[in-house]
Write a structure and sequence with these properties.
9 strands; 14 helices; single chain; five-stranded mixed β-sheet; about 5% strand; elongated; alpha+beta; about 450 residues
Length: about 450
C-alpha cells in the first residue's frame, strides 16, 4: 500500500528544492553572462533587502485574510519557509535588476503577476491557496516587488534622492525593529507580550527614551540627504563630507543610533539577545566599519576629513559643536537673518547671542546681500540651500549645544517641521516682507566660539 503522507512529504521536499534551485540558477547565470556593474549589484542588493523587509510583515496580512498557507513545520520565519523566502528575494529583487532595466516597471509587474498566477497553483501541496488569494498576490507585488524595483532603479540611475532615502529608512527600520527581533524570538524565544504585562506609564516612559536614538538616526539621514546629497547606504553615500547638524557633535550618529536602539529594545523587551545585538553593532562600528570608513573618507575628502576627524569623536558626542570655520579662514560661518524691526525677532537674536553659538553669525535681514526676505532665514554658507521659518530656527539651535541640537533636529524632521510651521503661521508668525538696505553688510555679529 502507498503511504500518501510519504508521497506528499516527498513532493513538498521536491518542490521546495525546485523553488530554491531555479531562481538561484537563473541569478547565477545572469551574473556570469551579464557581469553587472557595481551600481547594478548595489541596486539588486537594495531591492533584495526591501523584498525581505516587506514580505515578512506582509505575512501578517496573509495570515489575517487567510490568502494562503505553507504546509511546512520547520525552517520557517513567521510561517514562511526560509528557502522560499530566499527564492522570492531572488525572483522579485535580483533577477529583474540583472535581466533588464530598460524594460518598464509596469511590464515587469504584469510579467511577474502572470508568472505567479501560473506558478503558485503548481506549488500544491507545499503552498495551499485559499479564497481571494489573487488579491493577496496583487497586493504583495504592489507592496513588495514595485518598491524594491523602484529603489534599485533610482539608486542605479542616481535619481529621486529623497524618495530612495525614504525607502531605505523604511527598509532598514523594518529590518532592525521587526525582522531581526522576530528571527531572534522564533529561534530563542521571547516576544512583544512582555509589554502588555507592564504598567502603561512605564511603557510610555521607555518608548519616549527610545525616541532619542530614533531622532538621532533620522536626523542623521536627513543631513546626509540635504547636506551630503547621498543616503545612509555605504554604496550610495553622500557626495560631500557631512560635518553639520548632529555630525558636528559626533562622527557616527547613525551607528550610535542603531546601537542604542538595540540596547533599548533589549531592555524594554527584557531580552538578552536583543541587548547583545547592540554589543554586536557597537563592535562592528568600532572595528571593521571604523577602519574601512576612515580609510575611504580620507581618500575621498583628504584634509577636510582629517581636520574633522581630529576634533569630532566617533562615538562619544561632544557637548558643544565643531564648525569647519573654526579651523579654516576660507570657510565662512553660517548666517541667521532676522528682522531687526520686529521685537520678537530681535529678542530671538539676543537669545541666541547670550548662548554663544558656534559657527553662526546673526545678521539683520535688512542687510541680506542679494534678496528681500519674508521669514527668519538660515544660510549654511556651504553651497546648500537656505532654510526659512521653523527650519531656520531649528538649524540655528544646532549651533548651541547637544541638547538644543537634538531639539532642533526633531523640529526639522519631515511632517514635524511642516506642522510646526503651520502652528507658527496661525499664531502671528506668518511671512512678512523685509526690504533690504542698500548699504553693504557692516553691522554683523560674529559669534564664533
Amino acid at each position: 500500500m502507498f503511504d500518501f503522507n510519504d508521497i506528499f512529504a516527498n513532493e513538498i521536499i521536491l518542490k521546495r528544492n525546485l523553488c530554491l534551485l531555479l531562481p538561484s540558477s537563473i541569478a547565477l547565470i545572469l551574473l556570469a553572462l551579464k557581469r553587472p556593474s557595481k551600481k547594478i549589484r548595489v541596486g539588486a542588493f537594495l531591492a533584495s533587502l526591501w523584498v525581505l523587509a516587506s514580505l515578512v510583515p506582509f505575512q501578517v496580512l496573509v495570515n489575517y485574510f487567510d490568502w494562503w498557507d505553507f504546509d511546512v513545520q520547520k525552517g520557517t520565519l513567521f510561517s514562511i519557509p526560509v528557502d522560499l523566502l530566499f527564492a522570492w528575494i531572488l525572483l522579485w529583487g535580483v533577477i529583474p535588476v540583472f535581466t533588464s532595466l530598460n524594460l518598464r516597471l509596469p511590464i515587469w509587474f504584469i510579467l511577474m503577476l502572470v508568472f505567479d498566477l501560473l506558478l503558485m497553483p503548481l506549488c500544491f501541496p507545499l503552498l495551499k491557496l485559499n479564497q481571494n488569494w489573487v488579491i493577496g498576490e496583487f497586493l504583495a507585488l504592489f507592496l513588495c516587488f514595485v518598491p524594491a524595483q523602484l529603489l534599485a532603479r533610482w539608486t542605479i540611475e542616481e535619481r529621486h534622492l529623497p524618495s530612495r532615502a525614504f525607502l531605505q529608512v523604511i527598509c532598514f527600520s523594518i529590518l532592525f525593529l521587526f525582522v531581526i527581533p522576530l528571527t531572534i524570538f522564533e529561534q530563542i524565544g521571547g516576544g512583544w507580550k512582555v509589554l502588555f504585562l507592564r504598567p502603561k506609564w512605564l511603557n510610555s516612559l521607555t518608548f519616549q527614551l527610545l525616541a532619542i536614538p530614533i531622532v538621532l538616526g533620522l536626523s542623521a539621514v536627513q543631513e546626509f540627504l540635504e547636506s551630503g546629497k547621498g543616503t545612509p547606504f555605504p554604496y550610495d553615500a553622500p557626495k560631500k563630507l557631512v560635518t553639520t547638524s548632529l555630525y558636528a557633535y559626533v562622527a557616527n550618529p547613525m551607528q550610535l543610533s542603531v546601537t542604542l536602539i538595540f540596547f533599548g529594545y533589549g531592555l524594554i523587551l527584557n531580552h538578552f539577545w536583543l541587548f547583545f545585538g547592540g554589543v554586536v553593532a557597537f563592535s562592528y562600528g568600532v572595528g571593521l566599519a571604523r577602519w574601512d570608513e576612515n580609510q575611504e573618507l580620507e581618500i575621498r575628502f583628504g584634509q577636510e576629513w582629517l581636520n574633522y576627524h581630529k576634533v569630532v569623536r566617533q562615538w562619544l558626542p561632544s557637548w558643544r559643536p565643531w564648525h569647519a570655520s573654526l579651523n579654516n579662514k576660507n570657510i565662512f560661518p553660517a548666517r541667521l537673518y532676522y528682522d531687526e524691526g520686529c521685537n520678537q525677532c530681535s529678542e530671538l537674536a539676543h537669545w541666541f547671542e547670550k548662548r554663544n553659538p558656534v559657527g553662526l553669525m546673526l545678521i539683520p535681514a535688512q542687510d541680506h546681500p542679494s534678496k528681500d526676505l519674508k521669514r527668519l532665514t538660515y544660510d549654511p554658507m556651504n553651497g546648500n540651500s537656505d532654510k526659512s521659518g521653523v527650519c531656520a530656527f531649528a538649524k540655528a539651535l544646532e549651533h548651541i549645544n547637544l541638547a538644543w541640537a537634538l531639539i532642533g533636529s526633531f523640529m526639522r524632521l519631515p511632517l514635524i517641521s511642516q506642522f510646526l510651521q503651520l502652528v507658527s503661521d496661525l499664531t502671528d508668525g506668518e511671512p512678512r516682507q523685509v526690504c533690504r538696505r542698500t548699504k553693504t553688510l557692516s553691522n554683523t555679529t560674529n559669534i564664533d566660539n
